[in-house]
User: What shape does this take?
Amino acid sequence: MTDLPKNTDLPSYCQAVAAAAKEASYQLALLDTEAKNRWLEASADQLLASSDMILEANQKDLTAAPSYGLTDASIDRLRLDVQRLEGIASALREIVALPDPIGEVIEGFTRPGGLQIQKTRVPLGVVFFIYESRPNVTADAAAICVKSGNAVILRGGKEAMHSSQAIVDVLRMTAETEGLPAAAVQLVSTTDREAVGHFLQMDGQVDVTIPRGGEGLIRRVASEATMPVIKHYDGNCHVYVDLAADVEMAANIIENSKCQRMGVCNACESLLIHDGIAELALPVISERLHTHGIEKRADDKAAPHIQGSVAASPEDWGAEYLGTKISVAVVDSLEAAAKHINRYGSGHTDAIVTNSLQSANRFTQLVDSSAVMVNASTRFNDGGMFGLGAEIGISTDKFHARGPCGLRELTTYKYIVNGQGQIRE
Amino acid sequence: MTDLPKNTDLPSYCQAVAAAAKEASYQLALLDTEAKNRWLEASADQLLASSDMILEANQKDLTAAPSYGLTDASIDRLRLDVQRLEGIASALREIVALPDPIGEVIEGFTRPGGLQIQKTRVPLGVVFFIYESRPNVTADAAAICVKSGNAVILRGGKEAMHSSQAIVDVLRMTAETEGLPAAAVQLVSTTDREAVGHFLQMDGQVDVTIPRGGEGLIRRVASEATMPVIKHYDGNCHVYVDLAADVEMAANIIENSKCQRMGVCNACESLLIHDGIAELALPVISERLHTHGIEKRADDKAAPHIQGSVAASPEDWGAEYLGTKISVAVVDSLEAAAKHINRYGSGHTDAIVTNSLQSANRFTQLVDSSAVMVNASTRFNDGGMFGLGAEIGISTDKFHARGPCGLRELTTYKYIVNGQGQIRE
Assistant: This one.
């Protein structure tokens, strides 16, 4: 599985995979919703029916895991059992229930002269998806891509190769029984890192690349890719406590944004507070964070109000800690908060706590991020929480898709123009 | 004007221009429609009031034109007079009448738990626009960008530098009198080609680059740019004559698509015809093209039905002639036509002539282009013809914007989430 097909060099292999995906994408674009849903249902059934085979493959990955130096947490995420397979199967069934974006007429109008113009939603084509070593993501990503009419080339982490291959085998088998092209779902069958580089050169054949993983990987992909990329580098999310904030609400929202789950991109890393409320609110907030063992990296104005704070250094303002630290700065206005956020933030998720309608409106206008929350935890910026259903990633770019990316974000549109022989004067 | 400000090196100059644009973009994002429209109206008035100054600047460009080796046609496009200035002013007034895309709530819904989510249209931020030597484009592009809430950095052709600078001086003066930041519109004040390279490295400061001009320029921009690019390389547009076509309609549409204006990206360059109708239709069509002096580059099956055809070479299928040539191939099915188009076409505009509803539906599904026309000239793929109003370019990419790009295509969205203290369980 980590070997290429015999007598094939790496560039030819990657080229063949991409060509098969492109060909499959043309067929997928024609499928009706029912055919795609039948495949999802059959795949859910077959993943459970094939549990012995999949768990056996998973065991090979688990056996090899120590040689990759995986942490216990990573090994736990890699591990499959019957219950987790049932989770994967139900995730596929949830995608059945999501509306099919393809064929939606986004706009339609008739021009003077009688041309009927329809802006119609169509698939992007071929998605190249690079992801971490989690077998459940293999099934999820394939389901999201195919339901939105795209062929997908999966490049999973090598630590989950056997598990992912077993899952993909099932998905391809059910594709064939349900009349979908098997090349709708392909797993790159080599762990050679150069393979990624080859796919990234295939603008025109690969329509979008979606990398998930560490910032280094994502920067490499963004810099090498010749096609568009859906990505986010990091999440330095802010909560700004306005002069007109309710202190208890502020403490709740900061506690939840920072501590509910620390290792995620929509966790709060930076606290900004208006200097008119700092003296009152900071002790309450910092006490709350203290119960979770959070280290407060404070500026000169915040420090006096925070017991046991550490002096912030300039690097703290841009830091994504993904752990038990938070930066704290006092600002003298909402505008200064917004400016700080636009300068140091990631354009991911930023929140204001306020009871002032003016402040809420001004903050949501000024802050240039994918999601701006008013009196709500940053942790809500998530496809599931937004009701998009499954999500394949989150984008902090402004182009094409911003924020959580679900089925619709994997589509584009074409203009279909119906005439009766019209020519241009 | 072709000199940098004193004591400034090129990278610092470009950096300062981009920083000023970014700062202006934050202010523009807050403007209401009326403020932007007042600026457009004042600019239209002031361009006419400043006609002496602008025509004098234009005269400098015209005097220098022979030294740039401009053709007579290019010199004509460069030339301004009072009537053309009136045309520029009315184009600005037409943009006043277009709906402002900013602030549109694209979707809004309330989640279980009470979070109110609004997907709201906002500007992209800073547009870097590279364009040919046409003074009217300077005003048009600035108006489109600012009306959609974006700051623009204009990089015009050196041949029109004096004219463009005079126009931009007016636009900046009216910006200041109408309360807009002057840096909303900046013209790069050096013709140094390296300046373009500096701006293309400024991902995060420049939000999108839009290059117009020759394919070489656009390929250079696409390859160097670190931010998204809205572009099209070329337009190898096809007309496919289906078995069920009306021959007279086919001849009309091909004549119009090929000959109404030859040097444009939505002109037809390739004719495909079903072999069941080739014998009947090709003589009629080729006779019609003959009256316009079009050379027919035909394949072996088409040639017998076309008087005076020339044998097509493999390069003809991908060629954008922009002149008096057309390639002609006979195909044995609609599917073969679609396959040919997806392989050799530009994804720009492709048309079918048919009276069969099935053929129309199948063709529009199979052909992967920004616009697919049924029984209408390819020449209709145009922002004006589609009723988008002003257009800043056309995109053959699938990402973000496809087809004609007007005000709305220069926007993105952000999620604004209103809560009442919600935290995530």
